[in-house]
Amino acid sequence: MRALSTALSPGIAPEDAVPMAETDRPDLKKDEYADLARLSSALSEAEQRKEGEARRLAEREAAATGSRRSLGRAWSLAIEMVAAVGVSVFIGWWVDRWLQSTPFGVVGFALLGVATAMWTAIRTGMAMNREAESEGGKEKGK
Length: 142
Hints:
This protein is mostly helical. It is built from two helices and two strands; from the N terminus they run ββαα. A two-stranded antiparallel ribbon has the order 1-2. Helix 1 runs antiparallel to helix 2. The N terminus is likely disordered.
């Protein structure tokens, strides 16, 4: 099978070019045709490898973004829980000093802070679960 090349003159548009057999070109030798074919196949293999690597890199970046997002949410949740308990204990201490009811304000507000922290954790977990289910549905639909 003879490969075809297109001979272009400066004034001829590519769609108007007349294809001619590579062996009809007087300026190329037979071994140069083999070199051109080998280089062409090597170039297409390299392009395919590059596309595959780009695809794998995009998949890796998407996975890393998801794990970073989850890690960020975990830290946010931990900080919210500690802050809820800490602020509640501070308010309890302040109420104890104001009302002079020493252990009851701190204990009561500490329990309130723990309950608030647990409610925040449950609410965040439910929201993350809903998001995971909706993303799973989107992936199945693809």
